[in-house]
Amino acid sequence: MSSQQKQSARRAAGAPAAAAPNEQSGPRPARLSAAAALTAVEGIALAALGAYMLIMGLAGSPDSARQAEMGGLTVLALAALPLVAARGLWLRRRWSRGPSLITQIVALPVAWTLVNGGGALIAAGIALAVAALVVLVLLVNPTATEALGIGPRENP
Predict the structure, then answer these.
(1) CA gyration radius for the chain?
(2) Taking residues 27-47, what's their average pLDDT?
(3) Alpha helical stretches, state H, the chain
(4) Under 8 Å CB-to-CB from 103, ≥6 apart: which residues?
(5) CA distance 123 to 115
């Protein structure tokens, strides 16, 4: 018998249903909501960039169509990490903190490269760096870690 069937049987019998292991009680902290939203925005931006690269590789006239198409597919695949992490943060899943932290740490050198690119890339690099730093601060905050069910380590 699956856990869902057991919970349904308990509800039918009038017994209180046990909370799911990853479900936390109370409202989602604003810090966690903000971290999830910013991580989702980063994922959406990556997906848009990947789609643009793929479309330009197929419909445009790049120097190497194969390289543009593979680059677009690669960026689309990379966009999955922050999008999945954002959904996990929104749903208060404990595992989602790691992928989101990794995304932010990887975003910092990308932001540095954009800032050094000059022109309009400077603004994009600054925005990316600010977003990454804000999410990092939000995710290491004790309120967010507690909401995700991550507590301090106990010394034996």
Answers:
(1) 20
(2) 94
(3) 3-13, 30-59, 65-90, 97-117, 121-140, 142-147
(4) 39, 42, 81, 82, 85
(5) 7
